[in-house]
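C-alpha cells please, single chain.
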Amino acid sequence: MSVKERINGHAKWAAVVVALLGIVAGGTYQHTRAVGQVRMPDADGLVYGWDPAVNFFANLNEIPEDGDATVVQTKDNTDYFSVQFADAALAGGQSLAAVKFQFMHKCPGIFGTHSWQGRLYRPGSATLYQPWTATSDNGLDSYESRGQVYEIDPWTGEPWALANLNGTQLGVWRYSGTMEFQKITQAGINMLLAQSPFAPPDAKPAKAPTGRGNRIRDDGVVAAGESRILRI
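Here you go.
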C-alpha cells in the first residue's frame, strides 16, 4: 500500500469521529468531553453469502483499509453478509452519545448502476434487522465510505444501552435483480462516548472548554479498541 493510500485511510476514519463531535457539541452533552472509540469485526455474523464463505470478517478489520488486497465480494446472486464485533466497555462516567456504522465499498459498474443497502442485525430480536435507506450508484472504481449515524437505538427508540450495541451486527444487502461485482474492504463501528466533566476523586479534574470549537487533542488514527479524548 502506498503512503498516499495509508494517509487517505487514516483521514477517512478520523473524519468520522470529528463529524460526530457536532452531535455532542450541539446537544445534551455539550458541556462534556467526547471520547471516540473504534470497533473492528472479530467474527463472522449471522448471515452470509458473499465470498469468501467463512472467516470473511478477517478481510474487513484492517486499519487503514487495504483496498483489493482483502475484500468480501458478491457471488452469483447471493444477497447478504454480516459481521460481529468484540464487546465494548464503558469507563466510569461515560455514556453512549451516538454510534456510526460504516464500511468501505466499491463496484466497477460492469452492469451499470448498482444497488446496496446497509443493515443492522440483532440476533434473537423479534425484528431481525434494521435497514438503512436503499441506495443506487453509478459505477465506482474506487472505494467510498458508506455509513449511518444512530443517536438512538433503532430497535428501542431509546438511547443506546451497551448490551444492545454489543449484540448488534453490521451487514450489507445487495438487493438488485442482477449480479453485481460489489466489494467491501473494511467495516467498523465508531462509538462516540460522552464523558462526564465531573472527575472521580482519584483523577485529575477535566479542563474547561476552550471555546475554540471542536478539535482532536492529538493526531493519528484511533486503533481498534483504543480511546482518544476529543475536546469540545
